[in-house]
Amino acid sequence: MIAIVGRPNIGKSTLFNKLARRSIAVVEDEPGVTRDRHYADCWALGKEFTLIDTGGFDPFDEDPRSAGIAGQVKLALEECDGVIFMLDGSAPLTPADHEAAKLLRETDKPVIYVANKSDSERAAHHALEHYALGMDELIPISALHGRGLGKLEDRIAEILPDEMPSEEDELDESIPRVAIIGRPNAGKSSMINRLLGEDRQLVDDRPGTTVDSVDTLLERGDKRYVLIDTAGIRRQRNVRKAGGVEALGVYQAIRALDRADVAVLMIDAYEGAAEQDAKIAGLAVERGTALVIALNKSDLMSAEQRKKAIDHARDVLSFCPWAPLITTSALEGRGTNQLLSRIDDAVAEHRKRISTAELNRFFAEVIERRPPPTFKNKPVRIYYVTQARTRPPTFIVMANDSKLIHFSYARYIVNQLRQRFGFQGTPLRVIYRSKSTRARARR
Ligand code: GDP
Fold first, then answer.
1. What is the C-alpha separation between 86 and 12, in angstroms, rounded?
2. Which atom of ligand 1 is nearest to the CA of 329?
3. Ligand 1 neighbourhood includes 182 CB (under 6 angstroms)
4. CATH code, 356-442
């Protein structure tokens, strides 16, 4: 994980988008889920990394001015493997730059310094001055015009490890990998403790298990789960004071979701679901993990308040009505069995495969009931459907021309798939393909 940090409004998001676009074919976003994207899987000289735009987190800081850039930088250094620190190449240094640079000098994590807007006349004027911060190298770039990005990518590739750790590959694929995500204080650590506390065979580093040291194996009867990044969640307590409190949940989620089959989004029901919860849920949907929502701290609420909290959460998380939602109390240990059983169900749906024969029988009905509308007078034909992948279930719909499939018809198809086959707890992907044109992905 590599974060782009720097003062607000100097071009962090522009750089983020440029680097992301160079690396990936961005999948079409589902409206409402990811209006603005703050992380992306990227490649630099063939090495994969996750790039994070911390600028996107700014609005969610409790008080951006007091938390300031120092909080951002501290958090990024804490949570990431390296940072790209951006200066405004066309302007003099500010006290905030000095403050951030001081923190960066103290870290042993790799830092890449870039001076953005280096294509401007004024840039040359300030170039030397910026070296006063004491870095060895300052890469002049123009995020807007894409200048200097090749060199930046070289540097990124240099700080990435040559090979990703292979430990994970050895893990038993059948054990569900659970990421517990949510805003700080939602009760994630408490829930983990509760789950593990009731499980007397808690194993962290039992010889012979290949669980990452940051993860924890949970055994319940004959069932096993890997709770991902429990170390990170517990560590959160110490980082909270560093500022950027709201962003913490996002960092943790991005890191954990990468390796997860299913996400448990914990929400402080007493406080109520908020935009930030939707954002974290959106990350899970985007990643394609299964999702279970736990409205925690139900012990603080009356039955009526709980009902209101559920309605409100459904409202805020309206883009994933398929995710099961339960109320829990990590404090009193209520809802933990239900939580595990929802996880089991969601994981099963996430891994479910429908045979091509069954799919096509079903699609024949679906299309007959409501044929795809013609588009600009061109007839739309759907030839066949197949499930290409599981985790999440991914369907390929072969059409004469995928561009002719109207958005509302794509919606109809997804709804029909859910109505018929369930898929409770998992996002779905439906990719429309035509022989001549590029694939077009829709969820
Ligand atoms: P995390 O930041 O998401 O890991 O949250 P913690 O597990 O650290 O919990 C934050 C605070 O909420 C702590 O003071 C917990 O004791 C409290 N808490 C957690 N779960 C519950 C719950 O179900 N009910 C109540 N009343 N408090 C809870």
1. 7
2. 23
3. yes
4. 3.30.300.20
